[in-house]
Amino acid sequence: MDLNIWSEENVEFMFEGITKKLRMATGGSIKASNVKQEMYEDLKDLYEMVASKDRFSISEIDAITTELGKIRKA
């Protein structure tokens, strides 16, 4: 899997990874079709940041969920 290239499979993989790491219950409601293609790099950056950390503060989780909201299509 090459996460440098946009695909629905990659988007879903990254969302699943983020939601598992953060133990978010709402992850299933985020679909690849809800992601603007031009926001893919932002999602990839967010995924890499989340994957690199072991623990998150409440404020970090809040900031991450805010960023996920920005990535989704309006």
TrEMBL record:
Superkingdom of origin: Bacteria
Pfam annotation, one family: DUF1128
InterPro entries named in the record: UPF0435
Name this polypeptide is given: DUF1128 domain-containing protein
